[in-house]
What does this fold into?
Amino acid sequence: MKNKFIVLMISMMMISCASVKKAELASSEPDLAFIEVEELRTDAMNNQADLYAQNSFLKGESEYREAIKNWGDGKEDSDVMDELAMAKAYYNKSMNESTKAINRPERIVFARKEAINAGVYDASKLREELHDLDSELADTTNNFNEDLDNEEFTRFLKDYQNIEIRAVQHYELSEVRNRIDWSQKKSADDLATETFKTAMRDLKAAENMIAQNPRKPDEYIAEVDRARFSSKLLQDVMQKLTGIAEGSSEKVALELVKKDRDLGKLNNRIEYLDDRLEVSHAATGALVSRIEFQNELEAVIGEYPDEMAEVYQQGDKLILRLKDMNFAVGSAKVPQESKDLLRKVDKTIEKLNASYLIVQGHTDSTGSSSINKKLSKKRAVTIANYLRETGKNDIGIEVEAMGETQPIASNSTKKGRAQNRRVDIIINAAPKMSNRTVYQQ
It folds into this structure.
């Protein structure tokens, strides 16, 4: 009985030691508390607390993400504040624990920090690999109480550097890869063989240049720009070969794209009949199509209630300002209640015979500008991927990260911040021509 009592007491002491009391927040306002905790989280990461005190840091992450979710879901402010207070407590605990690490492989830690700065946390697969590597490093060093031998040191250093390289490649070349993947699904390797080969070659060259100089943008930016150009050319060519020039040769499609670019219409279809495009349509047919198209635009504009979206026209472009996206603070996940709006957007794209989309992500002012920039890109990519995966329209989509730079409401109120966490979709459309010319060589 005595032994059982001792075991029980020891267990209770361990539980007591492991528990953390809520920290005191500097503000009673949730939006200001979020900024306070986010800054502490950033400090913890800069001090590698997520490495040296991984368990405490991840508990802080759990509390912080739960606070973000509940804030976005409109839960009681008191619950959100409690979660933020616990997140602050765990982040502080991780900072204190990290100071106790005896052996710190400085070169490895520096390589890891560079990988994080390169954007590892923006790519889920890379983030998981980083955490796995962190756990392996902690195990190998007995929680940083033992030294690495030379072989282990070299291996870990190389692994962290490789993650950094891939993070930079992801940041710089994700859109290039998306364009090539989209084109490949359209059989670009068969329909536009040479243009496809060039795009693949330029992508590989950019990847190799980044691998050689991941921390020197001036060294690799020329190759990245070349890859962006050739992938965009490939996408434009494939849009011709699967659209107005279906059945034509790659050479003809390239000539059409060149004409579009010469006329300053790289991202738009025909705005009006132009003799230089050598498209043989009757002028009366074109006029009728233009009138019908304008009617369609005006009808679409009327389909969106003001509280759902702000819709306006710029030439053949339709701007959809999706105000009813309801993104949670710090989240890029598509809310369930916003999916009906995205389905409506997809129907609009189909109705207008859209040729191309630009998806712009926006945030409120909660958090730092650098974090908001990355978050806005995540939101734009999330919406772009959602439209690609669920829609019937298989068209080119670009994404742009606007961060907190273009608010449409005041960030001083909860309602205003919710409106600023939005996505704008720019639809490049065109009149449907009843007698489409098919170009053949």
Summary: The two ends are 95 Å apart (CA to CA). Residues 150-185 form the longest helix (36 residues).
